[in-house]
Amino acid sequence: MALRPVVVTGLGIICAAGRDPAEFWRRLTAGQGGLTPIEDEAFAVFTARYAGQVPDAWIDDQLPQEDRGRDRTARLALVAARQAVGQAGLVSRDPGTDPGRPDPGRLGIILGKCQATPDAAGRYQPMHRTADVVADRLGLLGPRILVSTACAAGGNAVGLARDKILTGEADAVLAGGVDPLLFGTYAGFAGLQALSTGPCRPYSSSDGLNLGEGAAFLLLEPLDLALARGATPLAEVAGYGLSADAYHATAPDPTGRGGASAVRRALADAGLTSADVHYVSGHGTGTPANDTMEAKVMRLVFGERAGRVPTSSIKSFVGHTLGAAGAVEAVASVLALQHGVAPPTIGFEDEPAAADLDFVPNAARPMTIDTVVSNNYAFGGNNVSLVLTRPRGPRPYDGLPHRAAVITGLGPVTGVGAGIAEVAEAVATGLQEPGRPPSLDGRTYAPRSLWRHMNHLSRMAIAASRLAWEDAGLKLPRKALDEVGLVFATAAGSAESTGGFDESIALNPNKPAVLSFSNVVLNATGGAVCQTLGLRGPTTTICNGGASASIALDCALEMIRAGKAEVVLVVAADETTAPAPASDPPVPYGESTAAPVPGSAAVAFVVESAEHCAGRAGRAYATVTGTAHTTGTGTEAVLRELPVSGAGPAELVIGAGTGGPEDGQEAAAVLGCAPGALLTASAGLTGDCQAATGAMNLLLAALALREQIAPALTGLTAPRAGTLGSYVTKPDLPAPVRRALALTAAHGSVRGAVLLEAV
Amino acid sequence: MATVLATEHPEDTAYGQVGDATVPLRFSSLAEEYRVLRNRAAVLDLGGHGLIQITGADGVDFAQRVLARDVEYLTSDRCMMSLVLDESGQVVDQVLAFGREDGLLLESSCGAGTRLLEHLLARVADDDVQITDRSGDLTVIGLEGPYAWGVVGRLIDAELASLPFESVVDTAWDDVEIVFARTGLTGEYGYQMIVPIESAAALWRRSLEHAQAAGVEALELAMLEVRQPIPRHEVTPGASVIEIGANWLVDITKDDFVGKDAVVEAFEAGGGRRTVGFTGCPGVPALGTRVQAAGQDIGEVVYAVHSVGLDATLGLARVTEDLAAAGLELTVGGLPVTTLTSPYVVPKSWSIPII
């Protein structure tokens, strides 16, 4: 099946080796690296001092005055994003002045980021904020995703962007990554003994990495639309592959199986074989574990040809830019294709770590390059591989097939109970425990040897995953587990590990809490789930606040549509460190004075192709009839975007209301767009558990279709919109529900809606 | 009973009876086989290890009850070593437990298969548990040594050589389905292959093209040198798990397992004796030889051999708790010895990366 060709029409980059693509390429081909000692005295406490830093002037000289006061992450991202959009010829914000420019609602952004970064005042900002800022400044109102698969995020973003074009949700997507150099992260890597004291030397000395900073973007669009508006395709994004090591929190699987699996999946996605590959842009951090593992990936994938496929690491120029790395290397790969030159690994010494491989030592190499594979490997055991080719001409293509997907297993871990039976009981009896942390007592969910090293978020997520898996009745052999996907959704990751790590750094930067550090990356919990359940299929992590779970569901559906997985586990988890309040529980949609209550929970659900479920005689809760996401325009828009079920309107809506003032707008929109449906929410039950609340809404919608119960809005007397008759006030639903709608919300950013239908 | 590979071994192979098995102790000389194991790669006939399969709907629960470590979530790509205890906390055997799609496969220690099987069968209640002796259709071949990974690459697949410790892969060798595991008993790179007996001879012969055979004597010496427990030498009547020094092969955080109460009691009671390595005295002292400190009797020798690696006597003494420490001058049968910290010989594999 030939899918719609997706091409790159714009590049943007700012990193230690250049402030724009032209300078970056000039320096790559001249072997002029950008790794320098850090002059900031705060870093003097560390023995290792080299990093890939971006001079302030490079950033501010490219920004309009109004953007210069923003935080460094946003400024870096804005510089690179504007370059990419500019090269693609999509500069104008006003479609009225540029008739060739796509509708802003069909322009998306998918941003990879590894670190939670500070705002201009130095406080942590939501993970998705940088994507919001770039989208707002550039007028991108289409799909918006923040992907945080640690050091694989930038490459992952490019792959997800291609998916959004193939599904037809966007006509152009700005895909990339960004991360600044942060003191805490530097201390963490120093604590892991992972930093080189000089400029890093990947694939030869391999004595450690240098951290770097920067941003890179690629503007992706379908070849046909690009040509129609006169844009110049620079390269094709022919395919991508994701995989999970299911091995360790920070160390790569030493066999190289995980990395090789990502490359093989990417080549299969592209319809190519390893024989077609001319050059590999390696991850090449310069740590012994990475470089040794990567050599194995090369041998596994290319076999006897491994030594004849040049592979190099441009981290020897720019350092490890974490969430930006995959995008930085994708930009270099596109330039390598354009110019027919493989960038070198600089600082390469005579004694390579693997003498049988060609690491393009020290000098750029002109050569025929039609196909590049760009690889990244990350904490949490997440691997990504991109296949980029020289652009080819227009050609016939097939649409992505529509494949029905069903939800077959539910795994809630909440303050009102663990497992669907306990939660159903809580719903039926009207139990409410907002803000109460879940209890995991009474049974085990993982081998004790793993469990005792897990933080609370991972424990909740593992328990939820195990419960969902058991509820689905899935008994898959080892080989099938290698293909099971995992999409993790979280707004903020582990508050426990982030807090513990930050405290340790504040006390002594040279004694960081390294176990906490390995769990600070947002995808750590997803990695822990994969490791515990032995899942090695495609995996990613979505961090769009309260909308993360429905976006994660979209990713799962895309994996199933593309034939990349038959079974995908979606897990959402967030936690609060605030104690449960003694005050009255929140009343979603009510004119109550009770404030929203933050909570902790993990909710997992198994998404399966209907075909696979039927093949094993599984019992589904619901069919996923449609999903929709909109940005910044309220609930009404997302409801309008949602595909309409031919069988009739939704009879039940599990809304995203948490008891705050935003509830009124949502209630009014639901009552207007889904007249006759009953509205309720999960926040009275569990509190606002961010990403897990979105997943809980999905779970409750699926439960309602099977059990005909829904959480009653206890205490609702004066709704902010409509009358009491429009809300669920008793758990037993008054009329049969065949279609239920679940809403998610990251306020001020993305709203989501999922329509489920009884099987 | 002789191992299934006995017909493959040279006529002058020295055999010995170990429990229920007749096993090759030496193929040539202990010193030569030891050097192969410590410096290159040795292939091991582990046919004396019994193989017992536990299946059935309650199989994993049963295994969780009879094994002292946590195997509830032992997936089919993992294996782990565990003790099997009786109700009084005495060691029945030390097994390698392989997670399987349909339950678990237990590999007994050398010569202990029959005893283990009887122990398991005696503890099956009315649950849906099937215990099957697979020793009649499967056998085990081991590879051990600092370059054993190279043999794996030449023999099967280089990808398998760098498997993480205690990882298991179902793979094929010469179109025969085998279970391949990264294990290790001697501190060197170690692998085990569980293979159908009808294909064992062919795999053994092919292995010998890349490695030399080593017998049980060389293997057990190398195990002792890194303080890998050898139950048949170290388990003495009445000795608790703690006295044997095999605490790491039980997990008292488990809700329950056969023998847990006795182990917990021993933990809580404290005292008793502990096991410590020693070297120094000329000749190999007999088992039970008394150990003294400053003229006071503090314990006895439980196992002693001549270590090729140390070129000296190496033994284990079970002595009073507070004297089971490294660096002490004691006497064994009146002869001076020094207690040691393990490993007593540093394996070469620790400084050789797999490439």
Automatic annotation (TrEMBL), chain A:
InterPro entries: Beta-ketoacyl_synthase, Ketoacyl_synth_C, Ketoacyl_synth_N, PKS_Beta-ketoAc_synthase_dom, Thiolase-like
Superkingdom, taxonomy of origin: Bacteria
Organism: Planobispora siamensis
Domain (Ketosynthase family 3 (KS3)): residue spans on this chain: 3-390
PROSITE patterns with a match to the protein in the record: KS3_2 (PS52004)
Protein name stated in the entry: Ketosynthase family 3 (KS3) domain-containing protein
Keywords: Transferase
Species classification: Bacteria, Bacillati, Actinomycetota, Actinomycetes, Streptosporangiales
SUPFAM superfamilies: Thiolase-like
Any GO BP: fatty acid biosynthetic process
Family statement: Belongs to the thiolase-like superfamily. Beta-ketoacyl-ACP synthases family.
UniProtKB/TrEMBL annotation, chain B:
Residue ranges annotated for the GCVT N-terminal domain, each copy included: 15-254
Name of protein: Aminomethyltransferase
InterPro entries (alphabetical): GcvT/YgfZ/DmdA, GcvT/YgfZ_C, GCVT_N, TrmE/GcvT-like
PANTHER family: AMINOMETHYLTRANSFERASE, AMINOMETHYLTRANSFERASE, MITOCHONDRIAL
Organism: Planobispora siamensis
